[in-house]
Write a structure and sequence with these properties.
Blueprint: E1 4-8, H1 11-20, H2 23-26, E2 29-33, H3 37-51, E3 55-60, H4 66-80, E4 90-95, H5 107-115, H6 119-124, H7 128-134, H8 138-154
Parallel strand pairs: 1-2, 1-3, 3-4
């Protein structure tokens, strides 16, 4: 049974999040990669209204300015709220500055980034130790917390 949807901007972001989310959470999650930010919000709105399932939306902030990030989250909430049925939750998360920048949090992963041209190759080569380290990133923790809360509500 689908417990929730995770809507992201690209296939690369999808591959990274599949690696970083615990299997217990990812197993009932539908990953939905779009072709950019405007497509993310359109897809999320459609999923919320048509499927009546919770949606996590994760997009690149392309900035480190906290005020600008908060403004983007507020705008996204304003856009999505009318499409959201009662008792269906959604969460908008901004990756600062990008989802791929999570990889720079681990020194060994950062080293891989300097030797590999293809980001997909870096994602494929992540070790369990690197994955565990990257799972501690605040953005991943927020996503895990939101999805875990949904699992508790359904159970």
């Amino acid at each position: 049974m689908t417990s929730a949807y995770l809507v992201i901007e690209s296939e690369t972001d999808l591959a990274l999040l599949r690696k970083l989310l615990p299997a217990a959470l990812a197993s009932d999650l539908v990953f939905y990669a779009t072709k950019g930010r405007s497509s993310v919000y359109s897809a999320a709105g459609t999923l919320l209204s048509d499927r009546a399932r919770p949606v996590a939306i994760l997009v690149d902030a392309h900035t480190q300015d906290p005020d600008e990030i908060q403004e983007k989250i507020s705008l996204a909430n304003t856009i999505l709220l009318p499409a959201t049925p009662l008792n269906v939750s959604f969460k908008v998360l901004q990756a600062v500055p990008t989802i791929a920048s999570i990889l720079t949090e681990d020194p060994t992963t950062q080293e891989l980034l300097t030797t590999q041209i293809d980001l997909s190759a870096v994602i494929d080569r992540l070790t369990s130790t690197q994955i565990h380290t990257l799972q501690q990133h605040p953005l991943i923790q927020q996503l895990i917390e939101f999805l875990s809360g949904l699992t508790r509500q359904i159970a």
